[in-house]
Amino acid sequence: MTQELRRELRAEFIRFAHSAGVLRFGEFTTKAGRLSPYFFNAGLFNDGATLGALAEFYARTLLDAERHGHVRFDMLYGPAYKGITLASATAVALARKERNVPFAFNRKEAKDHGEGGVLIGAPMRGRVVIVDDVISAGTSVRESVEMIRAHGGEPVGVLIALDRQERGGNAENVSELSAVQEVEQKYGLPVFAIAGLDDVLTFLDSGSEAASALAPYRQRVAEYRMRYGASTS
Ligand SMILES: O=P(O)(O)OC[C@H]1O[C@H](OP(=O)(O)OP(=O)(O)O)[C@H](O)[C@@H]1O
Ligand SMILES: O=C(O)c1cc(=O)[nH]c(=O)[nH]1
After folding, report:
1. Is there an atom of ligand 2 within 6 Å of 39 CB?
2. Which atom of ligand 2 is nearest to the CA of 38?
3. Active-site residue 186, yes or no?
4. Can 18 be counted among the known catalytic residues?
5. In CATH, which of 3.40.50.150, 1.20.1510.10, 3.40.50.300, 3.40.50.2020 is domain 3-228?
6. Where does this protein hold orotate (predicted)?
7. Residue 3: CA count within 13 A, CB half-sphere
């Protein structure tokens, strides 16, 4: 995919997330306790058509990373709960693109009867990409890395929907790196995001009808980035 196509994919994704009501503007408190003028709630990709469309964006982003030599992968892993549908749907989208790979996911609580255990799906082996919606403090990635390694796989990357491109910490204390950068540094894993905060701002500046209706939020999102934004991500 060329730079231009990649840019268009990101713009398309933001328009899609906004029209699906997943990307919203207003006043929201993030997990870190920051008052954010926008929020991305992937739990609202909650019908077949939107989940299918989302999976198509994940698949295209991952295959593009692979084509550019940024990752080689054998299977997907989705951390419970939201990651379960995300990894499963992405596996379906990949198969439709002639790239059929196995996938697995975990139970939050181990099952002590029947087949037992915490993992469901394909046996964990080879190079594994973690599929999730967002990274906040990095807890889900840390647990996923541990889970994959403990079961014989090798984590090789993380695929997320939106990179908020903001520095770690909380409302008052702001650390140097973003959550995504911390994951990249701590685990040596590349993180591939379908889109990021930059693309949210590009969308708000696009002059489209949808963006015009959101004009009051443009300044607030820019101010939020000034305050918490990471240098690059
Ligand atoms: O980087 P972190 O601080 O881990 O935050 C990100 C994780 O938090 C959310 O899931 P959550 O743990 O709330 O579980 P859910 O999928 O069951 O909603 C989200 O889906 C990520 O998995
Ligand atoms: O950090 C968070 O709490 C967070 C932000 C966001 O936009 N979406 C999300 O699911 N969590």
Report:
1. yes
2. 7
3. no
4. no
5. 3.40.50.2020
6. 39-40, 136, 164
7. 0
Phi first, then psi: what are they for 185, rounded to 5°?
-75, -45
Helix-helix angle 48-67:3-19, to 10 degrees: 160
- Show me where the domains of the chain are located: 3-228
Cβ distance 153 to 164 under 8 Å?
no
Q: From residue 111, how far is each of 18, 118, 119, 146 by CA, in Å?
A: 38, 7, 9, 19
Q: What whole-number distance in Å separates Cα of residue 202 and Cα of residue 96?
A: 30
Residue with structure tokens 């994951």? Answer: 183
- Which H/E stretch holds residue 1? none
Query: Can you read off the two tokens belonging to residue 164?
Result: 């908020």
Considering 68, 111, 151, 186, which one is annotated as catalytic? 111
Question: Which H/E stretch holds residue 27?
Answer: strand 23-29
Distance CA 12, CA 144 (A): 29
User: Is the ipTM here above 0.90?
Assistant: yes
pLDDT tens figures, 122-166: 999 999 999 999 999 899 999 999 999 999 999 999 999 999 999
